[in-house]
Amino acid sequence: MPELAVISDIHGNSLALKAVLADLETRGGANQLLILGDLVAFGPDPGGVLRLLREYEPAIYILGDTDRYLVEKQYPTRTGYQRWQAEMLASFFWTAYQLSAVDLRFLAGLSRSKLIRFDDDHIILAVHGSPRSDEESILPQTSDIELERMLAGDLFYNLLVCGHTHIPLDRVIDGRRVVNTGSVGLPFNGDPRASYVLIDLQPHGEYEVEFRQVAYDIEAVVAQLDAARHPAAVMQSYNLRTARPLTQKLVYTNVMRQSQVIRVS
C-alpha cells in the first residue's frame, strides 16, 4: 500500500473525484490522503466534493488560493476583464452561494502548508502553489534559477508536493524533488483525464512516485454545468473537453457561437 495518495485542484468536479477515489481503492488505497487545495470553485458540485472528502479519512488538507478567496470573500478583480474572465469571477459568487456555513468554516480551518515528517530521511513539504505563495506557479518551463528561489527558506525537506498549475511535473533541483500532481477536476496539460499521484518511501531518502490518469464521464459534468445554470458553463465545458484553459478572445467567441448553435438545435 502506498504511503501517500496526493490529489489537488478538484474544482467542484465531484464525478472526477469519485473516479479518482475509486481508482485509488482498486490500487489498495493509501495510508494517508493528502489534498492540496482548490477544492470547490468553478465546477458544478462544490458541496458534493466536500461531502465526498469528509467521508475519506485519514486526510491532510491544504488551503488553495481559490479556497482562500471564498473564505476571505476577496476575489481577484481588475478592470478590462474579457468575458471569460468575468465568467470566472462570477463562478466565485455562484460557488459561495452553493456552500453552507459549515462548508465555509471547514475551508477556513485549512492550513496553507504542511511539513510532513516520516523520518530523518523523508520529510515532505505540502503546499498549493509554491512555498512562497499559493498563487505562484511551478511549471515545466520554470527556470532552475527561479525554482531555486521559490524553494529557498528555513525549512528542511527533500520532497515538495504542489498543485495550482493543473499540469503534472516531476523535477529535482538542488537536491530536492518537486512533484506537481496535476489536477483532478480541471487538467490543463491536454489530457482530460483526472490526475493524481501515489508516493511510496524508499531507502536513503528516495521516493517512488506514480502519476495516475483516470478517465471519467466528462460529458456528464458538462450536463451538470448546464443543469445548474453555472455562470461559466461555456468556459468550463471547453476546459474540461480540451484540458486547456480558455483564455483567448477569438477562441472564446468561437466556442460561444458553437454553444449557441448546439443549444438551438
Descriptive key words:
alpha/beta, 37% helix, 265 residues, 10 strands, disordered C terminus, 5-stranded mixed beta sheet
Could you explain the architecture of this structure?
The structure is a single chain. The chain has 265 residues and is an alpha/beta fold. It has a single domain, classed as Metallo-dependent phosphatases (Purple Acid Phosphatase, chain A, domain 2, 4-Layer Sandwich). 37% of the residues lie in helices and 21% in strands. The chain is built from 9 helices and 10 strands. It is globular. The N and C termini lie far apart (50 Å). The C terminus is likely disordered.
Helix fraction?
25-40%
Proportion of residues in β-strands: 15-25%
Please report the distance between the alpha carbons of the first and last residues: 50 Å
Strand order of the largest sheet: 3-2-1-9-10
What is the count of distinct domains? Answer: 1
Q: In CATH, what is the class?
A: Alpha Beta
User: Sheet with the most strands?
Assistant: 5 strands, mixed
Structural class, by secondary structure, is alpha/beta
| Series of secondary-structure elements, N-terminal to C-terminal | EHEHEHHHEEHEEEEEHHH
CATH architecture: 4-Layer Sandwich
CATH topology assignment: Purple Acid Phosphatase, chain A, domain 2
Number of helices: 9
